[in-house]
Write a structure and sequence with these properties.
The chain is of the alpha+beta class. It folds into 2 domains: 92 residues, Beta Barrel (Ribosomal Protein L25, Chain P); 85 residues, Ribosomal protein L25, C-terminal domain (RNA Polymerase Alpha Subunit, Chain A, domain 2), CATH 2.170.120. 18% of the residues lie in helices and 40% in strands. The chain contains 4 helices and 13 strands. The strands form 3 sheets. Strands 1-3-2-6-5-4 form a 6-stranded mixed β-barrel. Strands 10-7-9-12 form a 4-stranded mixed β-sheet, with no helix packed on it. Strands 8-13-11 form a 3-stranded antiparallel β-sheet. A hairpin with a 6-residue loop joins strand 5 and strand 6. The protein is elongated. The protein starts with a strand and ends in a 5-residue tail after the last helix. This is one of the proteins that binds to the 5S RNA in the ribosome where it forms part of the central protuberance.
Length: 206
């Protein structure tokens, strides 16, 4: 899994007044849980651009101004309801010997037979929640849809890997090929045409 570094400043004052002052200065107050102690820090809002505004998932190295670095993953983020500015971010510290739970983007490969025959691929999940060691987790989970015909579904069990455990129920559908509306309309028109032809060929009653 990809990692990015955020240079941050550890903060001692965590009250509302200090937090408001940080935000007014363009800083985002953050917290890291999961370690021996809770760590409070702040960093410029722009520093989180490549972490927040992307479909990709990253682990994060929080490089504090006291010389220490902490490996973490984003756990929760709060946005301003009007301006959408980042108000607060929670991180969870990660360790080499402890598995983490995280949602990883899902992508398909191949061209589904059902889509080639006029069907439409519908997604039920865009991200797959898994548990595993950060060093073994992929940047993206890929599912082969080549053999999916109209009416077929791809389940989370089809994405199983030795590197992680999928946390969804086994019967969870990731994507499926469904009949498109246009195909249905064409079939209906053909059926109506056939019925009309049958009626025209039927002998008149005496």
């Amino acid at each position: 899994m990809k990692s990015l570094t955020i240079n941050a400043s550890q903060r001692e004052s965590v009250g509302k007044k200090a937090t408001k002052a940080l935000r007014n200065a363009g800083q985002v107050p953050c917290v890291i849980y999961g370690g021996d102690t809770i760590v409070h820090f702040s960093a410029p809002e722009i520093a989180f651009k490549n972490l927040v505004y992307t479909p990709d998932v990253h682990t994060v190295v929080i490089a504090l101004d006291n010389g220490t670095s902490i490996n973490a993953i984003l756990q929760d983020i709060q946005f301003h309801p009007v301006t959408d500015r980042i108000l607060h971010i929670d991180f969870v510290e990660i360790f080499d010997d402890k598995p983490i739970s995280i949602e990883i983007p899902f992508k398909t490969e191949g061209a589904a037979k059902g889509v080639l025959n006029g069907g439409v691929l519908r997604f039920n999940l865009r991200r797959i929640k898994v548990k595993g060691f950060a060093s073994k987790l992929p940047d993206v989970i890929i599912g082969d849809i080549t053999n999916l015909k109209i009416g077929n579904k791809l389940y989370v069990t089809d994405l199983a890997s030795e590197d992680f455990t999928i946390l969804h129920p086994d019967n969870t559908v990731v994507c499926q090929v469904r009949t498109s509306r246009n195909v249905v309309e064409v079939e209906d028109e053909e059926e109506e045409g056939a019925e009309g032809a049958d009626a025209a060929e039927a002998p008149a009653e005496a």
